[in-house]
């Protein structure tokens, strides 16, 4: 049974705080194992990669092949049904269109003191993409990670993916073909992340690594942060739905279950001001669960992490939502902008009754790689900016250095840095 | 003696690669100590803070006071000489003006399929600023960290700084007053970073932590990345100067020494196409070193990490500079734009003979918190964006979901996620 809370009940504040503070992330301490793997790959390169792949993925890279043959990607795409191919291509086109608007604008100008000041954005040279094997091998995630890099102008994209016993998901290969990926290595786990960061004889190093993975992959990225850029630390996914009583309980139940079916640690929370609707949604969830092929996962997640919270009115819900800083927020009401204006912390917001979160997972255009675990308080979804960096620049004329140089000399002297002061003073 | 290389010499490629790969960062393994400190502060809060402060900073917070009295900041500012106060205020005004142009623009529109799509930027609620005690307590760094947060619209800024034996640098307090910081805690080290991230009874938690610090502080930030946002992992600072023979050797020597004097691990590298000028600079460095109060540090750094590289022409230098991806790059030539156009990786670029790097440290306007250790390949200087996050949003009409919903259903079914499919299909 999901948690049921009522904002009018005694003890609500404490109960809600407990919900906010509940940690759903596994405390698996893999840091020592990962650290050893990173060291081994750094020292022994491809030899270490082959050893780990044999041990963990049960195939011999020299037999199965280190890289995926681009012909296999073309064949996978050709093998798709037309509706599925069309769907992937629509998704790719819409994701591209949305991300193109994220391209940053350079600046260059001269201010009143005669100082030229500006900023120039450039793409990183190479990006690495981790694609999980097995259940979580989603073609949609591949598109969501690669397209921002392509739009940024990244010249080289290297994908790594484990192929347990040599097997690989053809849908993922088809998506790779649509996304234009030409370099795919059949390695996974922390060892693949290490290879991307440090480089090996076969795999050239990259500058940024993104993409989802298990605890080992996440820890490898965390440990390599600074050697390369990474996307955010990712935790279990979550949805908060704010809905009045005018919604179809079945729709809202499906929305909640679309998070619950991801993983036993996923979280789905409904805020509503209508007690009868709350009951109807809870019953609808129970009716829908047995219909799902993902029933086992969804049932576990909904029982362990689901919550239905009754509020006096939906305005009361909004500061509570902000405390959760959810990855996904649905505002299933007639006037979503009224409530959206009150939101400070959320990864992505789905406005109105006709905007289920799942449409954003696939085809709407915004990125579905979003901050989880209350990280929307300080971080954003994956974007073109994650694959670019900004170089500031300045240029002074003789007049300009006369105008602002003396202040620099004064500050350098006060900070006890005489060469700083001299480098300016000599030019005055 | 600094390293001397000549691009025409046999073995240059290998020698330059060794220079690129040389690690100047300390290998101090403080991760276990830091991990223990973080756990203690998380569990015991202010009690742990007081214990560590007594042990490491040798004062009793209950006696010396936990927080700096705002009156002390006002008094410190009032105590400054007029030129120094004017210099700090000019710096603050120019840094503010530059960073105001970094404020991102929101988007909101409806595309051809009738889908409303947009992105909204908001500031984090609270930022924490680490300010070192002792030698590296620089008022300029305080301004460079606080002003982007203020421009972003951050409502609460909490500063922490160690006050060994209770002492604090009045210049730092004056800068805090100019920057409008009202919350300053007399704690430092990994324990202060932990307090900012987790919160204690006295210190409320923040969302982002920035600011320089020693190996313990840097490791604490690294371990807490994900609990909070942080600025980049910072290493020793560095400058690359590209100069033809038409420069004053004394000016360029001062520029090189302005990095060398920071720390024994700092690095200064000159590229020039003029062998006589290279010699003149080396001699000028030797002449200037004894004049510096920072002579000991600068001499060590220049001998251990300095380099003068003779190239056939300055165009040859540019791909080499890109491999170094320097924090600071001076282009001391008549036509700096010609060379700047060839730069892909640099934190900040200083254009022309009249633009010493030190002017950017203090008063030019761009941020002096910049990526070091080749991290300009994938990261940028501190900016307003580090204190903001982006919420994407979308809204569908009944027509819009008819247009793009079926593709989402097809993809959800292919990925084996039936509740995702149902949440869209029910609305079609």
TrEMBL record, chains A, B:
Record keywords, A-Z: Amino-acid biosynthesis, Histidine biosynthesis, Metal-binding, NAD, Oxidoreductase, Zinc
Gene Ontology biological process: L-histidine biosynthetic process
Residues involved in NAD(+) binding: 130, 191, 214
Catalyzed reaction equations: L-histidinol + 2 NAD(+) + H2O = L-histidine + 2 NADH + 3 H(+)
Any GO molecular function: zinc ion binding
InterPro entries listed in its UniProt record: Ald_DH/histidinol_DH, Histidinol_DH_CS, Histidinol_DH_monofunct, Hstdl_DH
Cofactors that this protein relies on: Zn(2+)
PANTHER family membership: HISTIDINE BIOSYNTHESIS TRIFUNCTIONAL PROTEIN, HISTIDINOL DEHYDROGENASE HDH
Function text: Catalyzes the sequential NAD-dependent oxidations of L-histidinol to L-histidinaldehyde and then to L-histidine.
Name this polypeptide is given: Histidinol dehydrogenase
Taxonomic lineage from the root: Bacteria, Pseudomonadati, Pseudomonadota, Alphaproteobacteria, Sphingomonadales
Gene that this sequence comes from: hisD
């Amino acid at each position: 049974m999901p948690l049921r809370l009522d904002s009018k009940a005694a003890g609500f504040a404490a109960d809600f705080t407990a919900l906010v503070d509940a940690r759903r992330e596994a405390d698996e301490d893999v840091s020592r194992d990962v650290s050893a793997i990173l060291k081994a790959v750094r020292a022994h390169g491809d030899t270490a990669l082959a050893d780990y792949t044999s041990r963990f993925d049960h195939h011999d890279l020299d037999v199965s092949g280190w890289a995926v043959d681009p012909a296999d990607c073309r064949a996978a795409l050709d093998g798709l049904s037309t509706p599925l191919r069309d769907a992937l291509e629509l998704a790719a086109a819409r994701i591209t269109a949305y991300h193109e608007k994220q391209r940053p604008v350079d600046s260059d100008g001269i201010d009143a003191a005669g100082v030229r000041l500006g900023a120039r954005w450039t793409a990183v040279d190479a990006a690495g993409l981790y694609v999980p094997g097995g259940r979580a091998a989603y073609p949609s995630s591949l598109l969501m990670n690669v397209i921002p890099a392509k739009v940024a102008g990244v010249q080289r994209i290297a994908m790594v993916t484990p192929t347990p016993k040599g097997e690989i998901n053809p849908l993922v290969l088809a998506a790779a073909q649509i996304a234009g990926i030409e370099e795919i290595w059949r390695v996974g786990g922390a060892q693949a992340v290490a290879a991307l960061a440090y480089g090996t004889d076969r795999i050239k190093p990259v500058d940024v690594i993104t993409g989802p993975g298990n605890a080992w992959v996440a820890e490898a990225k965390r440990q390599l942060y600074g050697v390369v850029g990474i996307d955010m630390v990712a935790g279990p996914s979550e949805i908060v739905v704010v809905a009045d009583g005018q919604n179809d309980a079945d729709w809202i139940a499906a929305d909640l279950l679309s998070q619950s079916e991801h993983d036993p640690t996923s979280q789905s929370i409904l805020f509503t001001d209508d007690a009868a609707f709350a009951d109807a949604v809870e019953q609808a969830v129970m009716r829908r669960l047995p219909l799902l092929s993902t029933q086992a996962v969804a049932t576990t997640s909904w029982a362990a992490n689901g919550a239905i919270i009754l509020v006096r009115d939906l305005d009361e819900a909004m500061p509570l939502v902000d405390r959760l800083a959810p990855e996904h927020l649905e505002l299933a009401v007639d006037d979503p902008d009224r409530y959206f204006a009150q939101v400070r912390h959320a990864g992505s917001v789905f406005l109105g009754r006709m905007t289920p979160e799942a449409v954003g997972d696939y085809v709407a255009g915004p990125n579905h790689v979003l901050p989880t675990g209350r990280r929307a308080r300080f971080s954003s979804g994956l974007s073109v900016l994650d694959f670019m960096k900004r170089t500031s620049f300045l240029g002074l004329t003789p007049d300009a250095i006369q105008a602002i140089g003396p202040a620099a000399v004064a500050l350098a002297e006060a900070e006890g840095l005489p060469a700083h002061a001299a480098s300016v003073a000599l030019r005055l």
